[in-house]
Amino acid sequence: MSAAAGLSLRGLHVELGGRPVLRNIDLEAEAGEFVVLAGPSGSGKSTLLRAIAGLVPTAGGQIEAGGAVLDGLSPGKREVALVFQDHALLPHLSVADNLAFGLRARGISRRDGRQQAAEVAGRLGLEALLDRPAAQLSGGERQRVALGRAMLRNARLVLMDEPLSSLDAPLRARMRQEILELHRRQGWTTVYVTHDQAEALSMADRLGVLVDGQLQQFDAPRALYSRPALVSVAAFLGNPA
Ligand code: ADP
Ligand code: MG
């Protein structure tokens, strides 16, 4: 892989409960690329992100990010941020404390942590909400806090697992734009998982379709839509061809 590559998966294999869940996944994303992974429920999308983050063991293959081999590194050493659909915020803690959560463990003082949290909150339009408990936020606000955490991790590689699926349609459309802008501004390499065809086609630089643990096709959305490699890819994209 070139030093500039954001993410490289080679022959990735994952088994869970004695059953193959990901089979021979090859995928290379350029630094700064916004990659979308789509596919039906149960196809292995979440497992793929969790494998990259080091949260599930791999049974074969190699993972590289930013030129470093990640296999064998504990999750905390991977400099990868994972944003979930259910935000994983601590409901009784304030926005500031949720943002700063985990910074202490990385040797950042409480005072510096609060300052960094305030800066990120400002960039996300959350400055007025710093002292509010997470339980009292709207869905969109909670999602911004989750993105703020990814910003504070200083990660180059950001993995998002259906981050907008619990939001209503108008907010989802707005947050898509926000996420794309944040991705560009932060210079992230992003892998964004969704099962929503419209989201996949509108957001991706390149789009991968997972079916039954295999990456069926990985290409520009336009190419996938007009030249689906398999009936299953065409079916997923809603293309009757
Ligand atoms: P997706 O995110 O695309 O819906 P997942 O990655 O969550 O799919 O799951 C892929 C497959 O792996 C599913 O068949 C699921 O049941 C199985 N699976 C996920 N986690 C585990 C686990 N901890 N143990 C056993 N099987 C699992
Ligand atoms: Mg999933």
TrEMBL record:
Keywords: ATP-binding, Nucleotide-binding, Transport. One of its GO terms (cellular component) is ATP-binding cassette (ABC) transporter complex, substrate-binding subunit-containing. One of its GO terms (molecular function) is ATP hydrolysis activity. The keyword Nucleotide-binding applies. Residues 7-237 form the ABC transporter domain. This is Glycerol-3-phosphate ABC transporter ATP-binding protein. It comes from Abyssibacter profundi. The chain holds residues 1 to 241 of 357 of the full protein.
